[in-house]
Amino acid sequence: MDSGPVSQYASYPIEPVDIRNVRMEDDFWLPIIERVQEKTIEYAIAKCEEEGRMENFLIAGGQMEGEVRGEMPFDDTDLYKIIEGASNSLISAPNDELESLVDSLISIIAVGQEANGYLTTWRTIDPAKPPAPWVEVREGRVWESLAASHELYNAGHLYEAAYTHHLATGKRNFLDIALKNADLMVATFGNGEGKISAVPGHQIIETGLLKLYELTQREEYLQLARYFLDHRGKPKHHDLFGPYSQDHLPVVNQREVTGHAVRAVYMYAAMTDIGVLMQDEAYQRAVRALWENMVHKKLYITGGIGARHEGESFGENYELPNLTAYSETCAAIGSVYWNHRLHRQNGDVDYLDVLERTLYNGLISGLSLDGTKFFYPNALESDGKYTFNRGACTRQGWFDCSCCPTNLIRFIPAIPGLLYAKRADSVYVNLYAASTSDLTVSGQSITLTQRTGYPYDGRVDLTVSVEQQQSFSLKLRIPSWARNQPVPGPLYSYVDSLAPTPSLLLNGRPLDAPVEGGYWIVSRQWADGDQLTLDFPMPVRMVTADARVEENRGKFSLERGPLVYAIEEMDNAQIDRVTIEPNTALTSRHRTDILEGVQVIEGDQITAIPYYLWSNRGIGKMKVWIPGTASK
Question: Which of 161, 295, 324, 545 is deepest in the core (most CB within 10 A)?
């Protein structure tokens, strides 16, 4: 499409390698991605049809009669997120049948769009009758209750999905719907006569607008995204929504992560974008301080965020309950999006350490092994009775608020895009998974092939294929757990002083490569077939939490490599009597008889499984943090 004038603004220094250039071939991520492609998308579309998501667009467009269906003002976004996930799938795995299905969904969405570009079906059907009782209605008109109406949130997911669909297919059918809506937003909000001075109650329109700006170079989209951020926390501008919506202070003055965790990380991602694009140091300082507060004081060992069911929100510093943890799946996804942006800004390995921990633990825990059951919250303990998962104490097949299942659909097919990144003549190898990637460095084509059993095996064979000898640098990430640190900062630490030393070989010979910022830097003239062998030892490690995390005093958690482990009642009949100490003998072995094959941790009285797999075998007790008298 015509991208307009060249931007006067900066761009991210580090560029991820697009998912169309990364082919997953591993035994860990590929089955999860294929599960979403082959089962979860179809399952979610059937659920959306069952619950009237498609009907709402048809009713709004006058092609059907009836009242709005569903219970949430953001139900429209379920279709948008499914289309985004399907589009990511089409990028890496073209599928004519899936593409045709997506086109049919887009045609239904188009019916519900008003002539001026407005698109929130419940408002169009009956603006005075919201589907949720907590959406305030006074005059029965659009935009009147932005704290809860989700009209701008709906738009944000629309833009993100349309952006991805256009990249995947080159088509404009969905993009034109999004641009028409975005132009309405530009005409409606901001400074100026006749415009509304307001900000969204639930953030994400900001990153969506920035995606459209990236695609079109229309500066008005960038400026509106900044407007929505700049005017948060300013009482002279609008009636503030308060800390729940991160609307209590100007964003550049915020230093503590607070309120609804999903809203927060979506906003911080947009702040990161603005800080980079507009080279705004105040934004960059605020983002760094917010990240440090989250990671150093409010992060679960699984990478999950959000301590409280009330408000789906962050708690106070060090408030990290286990049984009542919220740790929403959507919040984990938002955290990965944010940390990925932060890494693209400066290459700081800390951001990838948080990203990896979240990805392997508190994020994919949201999806069952069969691809059709889900966690909305991700508890770190279960007594088999407390119905933490929106009315259930195990995984559920769907929710009245179905944001998490469809968010998993939009996110998981895009995982290959997290593996590699480029900057000038350097290639970052950020995550380890058997894969083949084709990329261009300094105008020359190269292929990187990973062969590994990660995350269960720490050996990685990385082969470089080049058409002719070529000089460039490979930056090979050494994960924090292999650097003797569970996560950046002091919140968690390993019990033992063991620091297993990773090793690096080049063509079978030890290579003493410099380590800078958590990366091995291998700079050389590469020949076709050069092979690096990375080895990250994976002993079982015990972790303790900062003593200010009250619930974890006198307890340990277990991990091996990037995976956090948990004990379940079905493997530990006397689970409430299980204890561990620093001298407890623990080993790891592969078992084919449970959970479709898995590496377990075993000791005299304990069997632990990877946390992300818990609750795939029915209802029972579970613990991540296990009592042990020697814990600090």
Answer: 161
- Alpha-carbon distance of 158 to 162, in angstroms, equals 6
Helix (H/G/I), strand (E/B), else coil: 153: helix
- Those residues whose C-beta lies under 8 Å from the C-beta of residue 326, and which sit 6 or more positions away, are 261, 306, 307, 308, 309, 312, 313, 377
Helix, strand or coil for residue 496? Answer: coil
Residue 264 and residue 271 in contact, taking contact as beta carbons nearer than 8 Å: no
Give the model confidence (pLDDT) of 587-623 as tens digits: 999 999 999 999 999 998 999 999 999 999 999 999 9
pTM over 0.85: yes
Q: What is the pLDDT of residue 630?
A: 57
Q: Which helix (H) or strand (E) holds 535?
A: strand 530-535
pLDDT digits (tens, 9 = 90+) for 550-567: 999 999 999 999 999 999
Spatial separation of the C-alpha atoms in residues 589 and 601, rounded to whole Å: 7
Rounded to an integer, the average pLDDT of 44-65 is 98
Task: Determine contact, residues 32/412, Cβ cutoff 8 Å.
Answer: yes
State phi, psi for 146 to the nearest 5 degrees: -65, -15
Specify the 3-state DSSP secondary structure of 7: coil
Q: Is 598 exposed, middle or buried (0-12, 13-18, 19+ CB in 10 A)?
A: middle
pLDDT digits (tens, 9 = 90+) for 473-530: 999 999 999 999 999 999 999 998 776 799 999 999 999 999 999 999 999 999 999 9
Maximum separation of any 2 CA atoms in the chain, in Å: 75
Measured in whole angstroms, how far is the alpha carbon of residue 481 from the centre of its chain?
A: 20
Q: What residue type is 514 in one-letter code?
A: P
CA dihedral 20, 24, 29, 32 (to 10 degrees): 70
DSSP letters of 17-46? PPGGGEEE--SSHHHHHHHIIIIIHHHHHH
Q: pLDDT class for 8, splitting at 50, 70, 90?
A: confident
3-state SS, residue 332: helix
CB neighbour list of residue 516: distance below 8 Å, 6 or more residues apart: none
Label the pairing between strands 470-477 and 426-429: parallel
| CA–CA separation, 204 and 269 (whole Å) | 9
Would you call 181 helix, strand, or coil by DSSP? helix
Torsion-angle region of 356 (φ positive above 0: left; ψ -120 to 50: alpha; else: beta):
alpha
Instruction: State both tokens at 276.
Output: 């980079």
CA distances from 156 to 73, 77, 255, 491, 526 (A): 14, 9, 25, 34, 44
- CA 332 vs. chain centroid, Å, equals 5
First-to-last alpha carbon distance for the chain, in angstroms, is 59
What pLDDT does 632 receive? Answer: 43
